[in-house]
Structure formats: structure tokens, C-alpha cells
């Protein structure tokens, strides 16, 4: 669990926030996952939207809460928690009414969540290549410099995550996401979805007969990858049906709404990719 120590939190106001507060961004995968979880559990929470497209995550107010500059962040009665899966594990323990990590499936769910977390940068790479054009998503160099120079201590230690973030966004600004990187990311997902397809042979949901946090986490990835053009119905038909079924639930559907303006931009970008034979299916050789 990553809970930040109060002395390292520069934005002191959050230490006085009572109740459950989530700092999040509408279109961020990890934020969507957290919101679906909160909705399903019926937890009352206070929303603090942060606009990643405006690079608000590199402004001092937010870096003073999470030096990693990443959403979501949970503030619960003045305690600051980061890392979405740790946040949700903590909330499931703290609000046990409807368990989304049932005790008897805990080991299985945690292993599946680790895999999901490992693939986060692959999801980001495919999003930046096939869903959002570079002119919208790239970070301003001044914002990245502010981020680079900001405090980087988490629980007494220099945090390695910042280097990974800086490297991703700097490479993206100059080169975009290369064919090689996109190919590698889709192959990683292909392997992971082969395993999920097997899970769904025996069960209605990924870890049994009820929805768990594992379904929420992979639903978000599946939804984003569908937007990127990943051909689920062709490659992993059981996953496609499971995703369509979850999408019928308002707690899920409401959190993955895409603004019409972005839908139009994505469609135009994907049309160009179709004309130039550079869609996800072309690059991945599916
Ligand atoms: N492992 C972290 C990943 C968090 C993460 O990468 N969040 C993304 C949004 S999904 C973010 O804040 N990106 C910053 C940006 O796009 O500038 C978690 O699960 O919380």
C-alpha cells in the first residue's frame, strides 16, 4: 500500500479533508476504474477533477499531494493514498459491505491486478498511437521541466517512477509511438487476453460468478483497446461478450463516456490510418 507520510505532503490543505475524496481525470483509465469501484460499492465520495490535457498534474498544487504526478489519488480523512490498485484494496477493506476483492479469491485477483498494472504503459502507448493524436496529448516542455524539478521523495526515498514518466513523454513528444513499440504492446496484450479468454471459459466473470475488482480493471483496458481498434470479437470472442455485457451496466457505461469532439478526432485519425495501412490490426499483423 502506498500511503504518503504527512510531512512529505506540501499541499497541506488535504490533510484536513474529511471523508472520501478522489482526485481524478474523466478520461484516465485508472480514474475510471476507481470511479466504477466507488459507484458499485455505493461509497459517498467527493470529486476533485484534475485536467491532464491542461497538464494540471504538473502544477505545484497537485505535485504537493502526489510527487509522481499521477492520478488517481485518494484522500481519506486526511490520509493520502496513491496507486489505483492499492487505493481500491484499501477501500475494499475499509468499506467491507460489498466485497469486490472477496477473501477466498484474493490471491487470484491480486495476481491478475499485478498483470494489469504491468501493462499500464502498453495501454498508454496504444492510446497515444491509435486514440488520441499527438498534438492533443503531448506535454509542453515547460510543464515537463516543472515536473522534473519538483520534489521527488516518497516515504523517505527518491521515487523511480518520475524518470519513467519523463522518458515516456519526452520520447513521445519527439518520436510519437513507433511501430515497434505499438507492435510490442499489442503482443503483450494478446498474451494477457489469451489467459482471460481461458478464465471466461469456466466462469461468467474473470474470478468466478460475481463481478470483482478484476473485472473492473480489465473492463477499462478492454474498453480503451476497443477504441484503439483491437479486434476482440475476432481474437478473443468470450472477452468481447463479457465486455459487452458489463457495458450494459450503468455503473460501468457512465464512466467511459467519450466527448463527441474526441470521438470525431479519433475517427478522423483512424480513417487516415486505414488509408495508410497503419491501423492497430496492420501494425500488430492481426
Ligand atoms: N500505476 C498507477 C498509474 C497511474 C497513471 O499512470 N495514471 C495516469 C492516468 S491513467 C496519469 O496520471 N497520467 C499522467 C499524464 O497523463 O500526464 C496507478 O495505478 O495509479
Provide structural commentary:
The protein is of the alpha+beta class. It folds into two domains: 102 residues, 3-Layer(aba) Sandwich (Glutaredoxin); 178 residues. The strands form two sheets. The protein has a five-stranded mixed β-sheet with strand order 1-5-4-2-3, covered by helices on one side. Strands 6-7 form a two-stranded antiparallel sheet. Helix 5 crosses helix 9. The chain is globular, with a radius of gyration of 19 Å. Bound molecules: glutathione. Glutathione binds next to helix 1 and helix 3. The site of glutathione has 12 residues, from helix 1 and helix 3.
Keywords:
286 residues, two-stranded antiparallel sheet, alpha+beta, 56% helix, globular, binds glutathione, Glutaredoxin, 7 strands, 15 helices
- Terminal Cα span: 38 Å
Oligomer: single chain
Order of strands across the main sheet: 1-5-4-2-3
Structural class: alpha+beta
Supply the number of helical segments.
15
Secondary structure: number of strands: 7
Main beta sheet strand tally, sense and closure: 5 strands, mixed
Bound molecules: glutathione
Q: In what range is the share of β-strand residues?
A: 5-15%
Uncertain parts: none
Integer tally of domains: 2
| Share in helix | 55-70%
Write a compact overview of the structure shown:
The chain has 286 residues and is an alpha+beta fold.
List the helices and strands and how they pair.
Elements: E1 2-3, E2 20-24, H1 29-41, E3 46-49, H2 60-63, E4 73-76, E5 79-82, H3 84-94, H4 106-118, H5 120-130, H6 134-137, H7 141-149, E6 153-154, E7 157-158, H8 161-175, H9 179-202, H10 213-228, H11 232-235, H12 237-247, H13 250-253, H14 260-275, H15 280-284
Parallel strand pairs: 2-3
Antiparallel strand pairs: 1-5, 2-4, 4-5, 6-7
The structure holds glutathione.
Residues 28-30, 52, 57, 70-71, 83-85, 117, 120 line the site of glutathione.
Amino acid at each position: 500500500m502506498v500511503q504518503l507520510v504527512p510531512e512529505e505532503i506540501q499541499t497541506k490543505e488535504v490533510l484536513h479533508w474529511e471523508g472520501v475524496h478522489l482526485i481524478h481525470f474523466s478520461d484516465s483509465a485508472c480514474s475510471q476504474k476507481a470511479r466504477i469501484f466507488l459507484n458499485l460499492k455505493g461509497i459517498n465520495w467527493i470529486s476533485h477533477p484534475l485536467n491532464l490535457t491542461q497538464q494540471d498534474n504538473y502544477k505545484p498544487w497537485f505535485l504537493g499531494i502526489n510527487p509522481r504526478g499521477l492520478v488517481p489519488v485518494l484522500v481519506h480523512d486526511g490520509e493520502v493514498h496513491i496507486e489505483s490498485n492499492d487505493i481500491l484494496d484499501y477501500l475494499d477493506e475499509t468499506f467491507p459491505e460489498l466485497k469486490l476483492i472477496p477473501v477466498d479469491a484474493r490471491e487470484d485477483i491480486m495476481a491478475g491486478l499485478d498483470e494489469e498494472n504491468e501493462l499500464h504503459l502498453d495501454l498508454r502507448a496504444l492510446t497515444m498511437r491509435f486514440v488520441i493524436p499527438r498534438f492533443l496529448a503531448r506535454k509542453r516542455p515547460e510543464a515537463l521541466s516543472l515536473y522534473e524539478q519538483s520534489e521527488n521523495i516518497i516515504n523517505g526515498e527518491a521515487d523511480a517512477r518520475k524518470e519513467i514518466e519523463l522518458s515516456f513523454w519526452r520520447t513521445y513528444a519527439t518520436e510519437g509511438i513507433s511501430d515497434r513499440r505499438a507492435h510490442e504492446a499489442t503482443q503483450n496484450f494478446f498474451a494477457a487476453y489469451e489467459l482471460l479468454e481461458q478464465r471466461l471459459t469456466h466462469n461468467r466473470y474473470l474470478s468466478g460468478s460475481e463481478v470483482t475488482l478484476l473485472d473492473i480493471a480489465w473492463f477499462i483496458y478492454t474498453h480503451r483497446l476497443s477504441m484503439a481498434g483491437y479486434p476482440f470479437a475476432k481474437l478473443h470472442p468470450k472477452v468481447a461478450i463479457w465486455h459487452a455485457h458489463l457495458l450494459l451496466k450503468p455503473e460501468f457505461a457512465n464512466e467511459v463516456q467519450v466527448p463527441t469532439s474526441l470521438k470525431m478526432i479519433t475517427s478522423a485519425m483512424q480513417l487516415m490510418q486505414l488509408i495508410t495501412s497503419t491501423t492497430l490490426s496492420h501494425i500488430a499483423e492481426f
